[in-house]
Design brief:
70% of the residues lie in helices and 0% in strands. The protein contains 3 helices and no strands. It is elongated and about 50 Å long. The termini are far apart.
Length: 107
Amino acid sequence: MPLPYVLPFAPLFWIVFVWAVAPEVRLILRARAGAEDTGSPDAGSLRLIGLGMTFAFLSAFPLSLLQVLEISRALRPFAFGGGVLLLVAGSLLRRHCWRVLGSSFTF
């Protein structure tokens, strides 16, 4: 079983996952509402990004259950830790970009 589904690793993963994904979801919803309010000619890119994220999440978790993709038991904690660190680093970088670009930040 992948470590995000196993104690004691699961709570850490899911807390970090929600912390990283929640701002992205809020940003998509805010951008979608803003595009509808202003009549922005988005041409569907925002919808495509939302669908892409949804597909990625809905396919990544079932794929993690495939035995053919398993790594050795000894390396699992290191891979888990590296993945969580990458998730945190990527989210912090994205948040820094939001702050630096301010109103110039767009999807």
